[in-house]
Write a structure and sequence with these properties.
α5 crosses α6. The longest helix is centred in the middle third of the chain and has 14 residues. By secondary structure, this protein is of the alpha/beta class. The chain has 6 helices and 7 strands. α3 links the parallel β6 and β7. It folds into 2 domains: 131 residues, Rossmann fold (3-Layer(aba) Sandwich); 43 residues, no CATH class. Strands 1, 2, 3, 4, 5, 6 and 7 form a 7-stranded mixed beta sheet that branches.
């Protein structure tokens, strides 16, 4: 199996990537957007097995994550536009004409927004893996689930929701029950 790794350099950040399989003109690779934000592609190693079966897989750590670094320490880089630019730069740098895009968790939210805003014609398939369409909806549903928790857990979690200071030790059992 072919393997390639390196960095795509931008004036404000550098993006670390790894390619498993061959990047040829007629190849349509799968680009994986990891969860987080702040996660890495380290937990996606099982996807490498696809490269053993002829697929080309591209992982990259979004700026500020893993081996990808922010060079100018600007908080203003944490926005959709910069994440979109990062993906576009990677695709251009690797000379990819068409690709499949897989987004996991936060990466799924990012890929959905990317497709809506950029309307790219070179994405052949969009794969959403354990993602959510809206953090607000997810938060609302998580809070609704609290209604089914034991009373002593609801009390602790609702105090935390109201931004009152809660002892982290008190949160341990309710959060474990939640997860």
């Amino acid at each position: 199996m072919d393997f390639l790794k390196g960095y795509v350099i931008n004036k404000d950040y550098k993006t670390y990537y790894e390619v498993y399989g061959k990047l040829e003109e007629n190849t349509i690779p799968l680009i994986v957007l990891h969860g987080g934000p702040g996660g890495t592609f380290g937990s996606y190693e099982p996807f490498i097995e696809l490269a053993n079966n002829g697929f080309t897989i591209i992982f990259y750590n979004q700026h500020g994550s893993g081996s990808s670094k922010i060079l100018n320490k600007g908080k203003d880089l944490y926005n959709f536009e910069t994440y979109f630019e990062e993906l576009d730069n990677l695709v251009k740098y690797l000379n990819i004409k068409n690709y499949y895009l897989l987004g996991h968790s936060w990466g799924g939210m990012l890929s959905l927004q990317y497709v809506i805003d950029r309307k790219p014609l070179n994405i052949k398939k969009l794969i959403l893996f354990s993602t959510l369409p809206s953090s607000n909806l997810w938060n609302e549903e998580s809070l609704r689930m609290i209604d089914y928790f034991p009373k002593e857990y609801r009390k602790v979690l609702l105090l935390d929701k109201e931004n009152k200071k809660v002892n982290k030790k008190l949160l341990k059992k309710p959060l474990n029950f939640f997860y």
